[in-house]
Amino acid sequence: MSDFSEDLLRPTKEDDPAGRSVRSGSGMRLPWLQKHVESVPTRGKKEKDFAQTTSACLSFIQDALLKHQWQRAAEYMHSYLQTLEDSDSQKRQAAPEMIWKLGSEILYYHPKSSVETFNAFADRMKNIGVMNYLTISLQHTLYLLHHGLLDDASRNLSQAETWRYGEKSSSQEALINLVQAYKGLLQYYTWSKKKKELSELDEDDYAYSTASQNMFSHSWKTSINFSALIQTPGVWDPFVKSYVEMLEFYGDQDGAREVLTNYAYDEKFPSNPNAHVYLYNFLKREKAPREKLISVLKILYQIVPSHKLMLEFHRLLRKSDQEEHRRLGLEVLFGVLDFAGCAKNVTAWQCLAKYLRQILMRSHPAWIQEEWNSRKSWWPGFHFSSFWAKSDWKEDRALAYEKAFVAGILLGKGCKYFRYISKQDHQVLRKKFKRMKKLVKKHSIVNP
Amino acid sequence: MDFPSSLRPALFMTGPLGLSDVPDTSFMCSWRDALTLPESLPQNSENGAPHLAKGLLWEPDTPGPLPLLPPGPDPWDPGLTAQDLLFRGGPKFRRQPQAVLDVTEQFSRFLWDHGDIAFSSLGKLMLENFNLEGPRSYSKKKTVVSVKRILEDLGGHQPWGCPWAYFSHRQRRFSILGDPILGKSVSSLLGELLYEELATRWEQLLLDDAFTGGALAWLPGRTPQVRQLVYPAGGALDKLSRGPDFQEVRLTPGSDPRILGKPGHIQLRGPVRQVVTCTVQGECKTVNYFPPLLPEPDPDPDLHLLHPSSALLAVRSDYHCALWKVSRQGRPVPLQVLKVEKGATGINLSPHLPGELVVCSRSGAVCLWTPHDGLRQIYKDPETLVFRDPSPWRWADFTAHPRVLTVGDRTGVKIIDTQGPPGCGLLLFRVGAEASCQKGERVLLTQYLGECGPDSLQPTLHLICTQFSLYLMDERLPLVPMLKWDHNLPSAPLLAQLLPPPRPGCARPLLLGGQGGQLQLLHITGEGASTPRLAGHPQSLPSRSDSLSAFPLLEPRSHWQLQERLQAPTIGLAATILPSSSSPVLSLFQLSTAGDVFHQCLHLREDLGPPSDPRPNCCAPTASWSPQATACCRRWLKALLKVPPAPPVWAAPTFSHRHLLGFKEQQKVEGKVPEGLRAAMAQGRLLQQRDLGSLPTTEPPPGPTPGPTDELSERLEAAWEGPVTAWWEQQRDRTSRPGRQLKRPKRRTQLSNTFSSLSSRLDLSGATSAPHSPDWTSPVSRPRSPVALPSQELTQDLWAQGIPSERQQTLRDYMAKLPLQGNTPEGSSTSLSQISSTQATPSTQRTLRDCAAELSSHRDTPGGATLPSSQTSSIWATPSRQQVRILSGSQPHRKKPRMGF
Questions:
Q1: B628 in contact with A at a CB cutoff of 8 Å?
Q2: What is the pTM of this model?
């Protein structure tokens, strides 16, 4: 409480870039504190008229945007431009960014706006807020890309790439890298278009050689564009994907592997499941040894045990010679079925039923027991309740059958799910059911 | 489960904000989120770009929500406002305003009001220094004071620093002697406690996290169309509305919801803070699977099969949590009650396993709770996750894995495995550079959005709300937000609800509710293997205070009461989508702290045309009030006005003004007006115009005044019914005199010509709003009053060219909202009408003004110091007052007198 009181009484010297939010107790900023404080009448100086009109205008624009009244927002926007001349330097500096945000939003949604209007606005805004040149350029490019104007987008990025202002800060550098990467992506688009054309051409054709030459000239340019950015920590899935595709096409397998390994294993990067997926797919294409594939998927398993590649992982492990791997294969399957989103995955249940049988044949009931111990308390309610028995039977017979088998093995033939399903009389499945009952009787890990 | 095959590019930086110089690449434009990079081939981008439904909009049927149930019989007190807590004598405007708690005034008031508490112990200690009875003892001791004499001196003394107060030498001596003891010991002992209390109240006013999650929820009813609403009722919100059933509501797509029956109540021991309901696996009784949480009515004929038979209902109070099982037909069966010593902050029901709950307490403990197995502590950390934050608020929710939970506090959200070793886990979200958080940003709400289904979002998404933004996080990719949106809500977003898609393939509405009643709706798409993103610009939905225009015109006091009621904080949100043949209907219910449930229907309007297609009608046709709606509002209002006002917590002691009056009465009384005034004061009642006899009234009465006979006044008269009519009839004789009718238009010409097109509307707003003192309203209106300001931009560009009709509407809405935000202290309206009705004669007006000025100056200068009269008069000459005068048209300037003591 003591810091709180100090906060209240001591004037804070810190600059507040947002301008609107104020510190309350505990260092938390509340945007609505200003409103509360202003509701108390004071006798002193009031905010300037200019500031009042601008902030009122801003709130009108925001309100109109939230009501999807683009026309009204545009009219207010016309007046809001006065904020560029604010005498308060802090507000004046923040103004271009604000205008860009609101303006681009309006122009994107306004029924009468066109690409030309947007272009004109973006070009003006780039030069008004010099500091925002790069961010605006990037967003402008995205807009153009969205409208299918690849050439314009590319031109726009080239301009941004060469832009410099003042000393090169790290923030500027990161943005320039991003600009270059987007440029690379655009080049990749044209490249892949050409590749497609090339695949349609005959190799003996005269045009083939020029086209292929064209493609080669592209490659080295693009690699430079991508390489700077993908060293920076971040999520760069589209860039990495296209970069690797190009590297692979030109036979630079080592380069591609290095890029992917770096993307997947660099600790500074967020643990992006896609990085491991890309690496795995690359290694698979490369026909890497199974050990290698397993080691990649093992990490993916630790990050996302519910990934759809896990069933593939299970298959790899099942085929492995090592006992340890086969045991992990069971764990992976149980792990997949732990998730609510995978509970109706027939393939997973099929795999589990099959694998349980296999393991029990090879007399490793301890493995199952170990996996089951931690799930004993909640799987019956989660998967094998009588509600699910009825619902599964109605919706998906195959799923119900597989689940019933697993339930029989794990919980014994007395379990609700197994009993319900096995009682169902079905012509086609009768034989199957008989076998299932026999197997369950023989193998169930529950001692009768 | 599919993971998005390609995520949106994003920079990733670790650590707190501001440490590294990195650009903020989350640009915060909704359209930017709508864009996805063309997957691989450019030729697709021209025609293959996803056709975004840009015109996705839920249109409200009425301009504001309507009351669903009659107001409860208990009086409701709006509680403290910033005016009650903050120091009013702020020196000057700051861009970063300072919140200075007004301890001095509160303290001196406390000493006056509760002197017995403050001084009783001291009095006992000093008993020997007082001579309580009997004649004056002639002891030599100078330290003994005769109480009788002092009381005699004090008799008739007007306290609170009256400038004409007379001090006897005895009093002076007493105060000199007593001051060191009386002044210091009491203030040092009590002041600290009082300050602490005020600071807590102030924090609570800014952010009251008790109702995080919301206290309004759905339960399945007897049939799919009939559902039960569960919410706390009663003045203290301590009754869970219930009968044999909870409040039943019949929902049909075509019409408004119908209330069935009258619910009874379950009386609880404390106020209900959070209500959570959940249907898991149909409680193992129904034949069919039913999606958890929000049952979606299906037009299938065999609907009853899809209908869940029972649901679980969990309720969190301050120190208790309870769980009920509610079956479709039967009564709710209490399953278990849990006492939380340190106070519970959050409760959630598992969407996976029936009867499993997670409860968190202020001590930092998170427990898994099942009625069968009891409590199991799964996490405990009195410290916050990322950095130190004093808030004891904790939150916990479930994830896609039934044995993995999220645990959140103000600084971040962590994923913990309940089966793993205690203490370990993975940060899902942290307030820092990873999500490009702002300085001072804190987590206010986290919610698991999972729901498995073929047509839904990834079941691994979590919603995280801060005071600035909203984040969607995927638990498979911690720390990197999948989506970020600056919601810009003017109050804390403590309520959120994700709804099923209105139509297959349509974006899912995500409702976000601020404590102040503001609602926002986001359209979120991203099925299967794509990243979640916004489809179209988010939209705002009408709040309860937008319904004010549906109510009949009222006299100021009732108007205030109504406005305060409509602006009560929202503490619950429940919505559902009813598919209908024409367009899907979103049925939205909200609960306020006053216990009111309001309802609103919205229709979906989609524009699927290509993005470049200019739409002929871009602006939504504004909804208007139907006669049924206004009738409904009128009925509700009638019931509300019957509710007795909240009894004052404590009434100020009356000082011996009777004594003064008696003394004055001996003097020659000249004129009827002072006499009437005095009589009214002696009886402690309102001074009404009839008490003053027939006066040459020159000023209009408070509230609506009809101008020269025009349409507006005719309409108003027609609209006036109920309790106002009688009053109005009485007033009309006087107000429709020709002499005054001439005055009003003349005065209005004082407004600049640019306002001419608006003047009638301005006048209307002046009429709808209650009269108010400039001192109170000016700061409210100040930041949002461009109309009255001589801005050249505005006058030239906007007003002079004639205002588009739609904008006039906005302006009128805005003007209607302008003057009052419910910040006026209770009771002031009475005295206002008292004063304003006496403004007739200059002499009375003058004396009252002086009186009011003096009183208010006392209020402004705690400690009883008096102000020179020049200063008091300068209070009234601030520019803000002039602004208000312009705004309120020809209304006379009224003052707010000092209320009580």
A1: no
A2: 0.75
